[in-house]
Design a protein that fits this description.
The complex is a heterotrimer of chains A (337), B (384) and C (294). Chain A has a two-stranded antiparallel sheet with strand order 1-2. The relative contact order of chain A is 0.16. Chain A has 14 helices and 2 strands, in the order ααααααββαααααααα. Chain A is 75% helix and 2% strand. Chain A has one domain. Chain B is of the alpha/beta class. Classes of the chains: A mainly alpha (337), B alpha/beta (384), C mainly alpha (294). Chains A and C meet through α5, α11 and α13 of A and α3, α4, α9 and α11 of C.
Chain lengths: 337, 384, 294
Amino acid sequence: MSDSAISQRVGNDKMLRSRWVGYLLAALCIIALPLIFNDTYWRTNLTICAINVLLALGLDFILGYTGQLNLGHSAFYGLGAYVSTLLIVKLGIPFWAAFVAGVAFAGLAGMFLSLFAVRLRGHYLAIASLGFAVIIYQILLNWISLTQGPLGIYGISPPPGIVVGGTVIADFRNLTAFFYLVSGFTLLVYLLLDQLVRSPVGETLTAIREDEVSAASLGINGAVWKVFAFGLGAAVAGAAGCFYASFVGTLVPDAFYVSEAFTILAMVIVGGMGTLIGPVFGAILLTLLPEILRGIGDLRLVVYGAALTFVVLFMPGGLVQAARMIHEKLRPGGRRP
Amino acid sequence: MTVTFRGLIARVAAVGFLAASQATYAQEKTIKIGALFPMSGPGSYFGAQDKQGVELALEQLNKTGVNGYKFVVQYEDSSCAPLPATQAAKRLIEQFKPDVIIGEECSDATLAVMPIVEQSKVPLLNAGSSSIKVTEPGNPWTFRIMPNEVMQGVNLAENAYKRMNARNAVLLFENTNAGIGNAQVFKENFTRLGGKVLAEIGFGRDVNDFTAIATRIAGLGKIDVIPTYTLEGQGLKITQALAQAGITKGGGGDAIQIGTIWLPFGFEQKAGKAALGYIRIVQFDPTDARDVVKDFITTFKTKYNADPTHLNAHAYDQIMLIADVVKRGGKDPQSIRDGLAATKNYSGVTGSVEFDKTNQNTKMDTVHYMETKPDMSWTSLKWN
Amino acid sequence: MTTTIVLQQAINGVVFGSLYVLVALGLTLIYGVLVQINFAHADFVTLGAFAAYFFMHLLGAGYFLSIGVAFLVGAALGWLINASIFTPLRLKGNELLPLIATIGVSVMMQNLMLTWFGPIPYAFETEYSSQVIRFAGIFVSWQNIIIIAVSSVTIALLYAFMKFTFLGKALRAVSQDRETAGLMGINPNYLIMLTFVIASALAGMAGAMLAPVLVLTPFAGTSVIVKAFAIVIIGGFGNVEGTILAGLIVGLIESYTTQFLDPGLIDIVVFALLLVMLVIKPTGLIAERREENV
């Protein structure tokens, strides 16, 4: 083995260790947060952050790693929420079974859309996905006998608690417990996606994103991978939807209007498309920013739009790019690329 | 990363600021009123007008106070949607600790907020949501002074059948909780009396052109009444389209539009001749001869240089009712709740207030009928 | 009776269709030349409408003059967006970033308008919106006639411009093959700017004509834009004839869906059609398309 290969191996091991340290730190942060912010208002915010992180991760996987511009992520969010909730409320199916059903349904819908659009490129896919989101929204809104439409579904219960041998380990009516559930799930999803991206699968996806034609010459069937990625990203959004429904307790179609898709997109872009960690912070920032800026009323949405525009214009790599630039500046001596 | 610390700093700053402002009030006795109104997004229409009504009431009350108490209001933006509303409610309760909360406008938001106020044991006084679900289950902490969709719908259907001799109706409603709910109630009661509903046409809030819908209605044959449930923006277009198609009186036809909610005085000026003969339930009758109404209109005009709408009136009534409860001894959440429940024959700008067992105001004089005259002014029909 | 209804709905459909065409034409022109989508196009429509409103109601000017003002406002916006967003981003090469940037601009514009103009719908009345012509049981308002007339004239002019003038042919050349066009001495940047200005001016003008018909709030444009996108795809990106045809078809779909089904289903029908088109003929109704891996 050549010197450079050996040093790369060593470097990889170091990176591996630092990654696991990173995961551990994240887990610790998650545990600590609701204890620091111990009022209902902020704990609710944290849970919403976790749900949005989930959404952003799913979209980043689709957009950042396979280059498919999905402008309709809100559709999968909504499908997950409605499918799971309707199963629970109308058929009495237990929560976790309904959860799996919701996730699966959303994932399949994602695969369906991608399959349908797999020959389409760039803008065509973007508009097709937007159209898909509009259709789903209109179905949720108009099929009143099935979804209750604007009349809404109320009184949705949180997941049933975990009881072992008579003692209650977790009661999800408790905000902190619910937060741990969602953020724990999110961390697992992140782990899964992160590992996936660093594995040979990830390399395949990157190859497809960069140049699908050349990838094809290597025998990679771009279509299959793109559909798979879309399905996975959509499934993650479906999970977020299930959590959303049982968290807010109220389900109306308006929560999944197409503008939601743009919000999630903003989180991914502002965080840094194609980095996985970027969208995590993009989601947190864009969830908390409107809450912190509540005082300025309507202008907070203006700031939102401005953030998206300026990031794209001046720092398309988002927060991650900004962080890297700061990191470079602070490094003594710098490193030769 | 820095985000959570930033959040922490902002939060500390906010609490500090609040504490400082609270300190100045600590010397006086205050009743803290939390206000959940939509201030952003498409619903901010409501929030802006509610605020006007509230401010007018506060100005008048705080000149002398009531029973030694002054009133302080904190507004939170609930955006007319469940999640922002629950967020706003939680924030309000945690940080401002109100004695009573007024709001929201939209039924979805109100319904989402109700469990929170119940859990925190703070009374919620509502004057904007018509959905029956707000009071039907009987939540001891939620009160509504405006007539709900059932009260209005039953009354409207009866009046349409008996006083207007209507036998054929076409329902036009926006595809929201309130729109669908109201239309359903009318349909049930109208058909129960023996009337026929020729068509039920629901439309989304983003529909702009009603010529196609008017054309469809024109093909349905003889129509007596067209109950319309929608906001002002679309209501305007509907009325004009119906007139253009020659269906309603304003366009030379025979049908009369009837309806409830959301069409304030001033609608006629925008709709023009098309609005001729429109009969509708309003929650605020500017021709009401009672002194309390006349004074309200005068003081509102002086302060804002505009005529008050029902939104202004509702908000005004909410504050004034709370003041009345304080006069009767209310001073904290529990006693204010009890005071509200015990209200008997309170005379507000929008009508009288007396709550039944489910905390719904059942006084029918809150249901005012107005008809649009050829000169675009309103006549009060005095049907209640 | 039924033939009257069918005919009436046809007229309704054509009126609305022509408005959609005006809005969609702008999008299609930009795409043809730049292969980009301006998501804020709808908000140009809204801002054009407001500009016309204020011009008319504050300055007491005539309606047709206000349409002109809206046209100019749209033009100015187009210039601004191209200069600040599309030109700088073109150098970076990513084809999706500009779209995302314009989403941000759209959000900004809508909420700025919300702050300036408020959410209460404005009643934009002209002398024409209430006057109605009736014949053979059919009615058309003068406003609608103006819409059809102005739209038709504009579309005809635009079409003639594209087909017969040097500048128009240059625009088409640039959309076919930018490099070669450059070699022929045409400055692509100038042409792109011109396209943007024209497209956005059209949007502004559409706004002024839509205003008396729409519910005028800062969100007025959004109700139109999503359908405009559908039209552009159904007609074929960058294809003027296709857009015109598709726009009229969508307008007719709207009125007939309202008549025979339910207004709430309009969006579903239009977008289902969109998705079907993408499957069977992604290049659009009239395939006059260049080689492109669509």
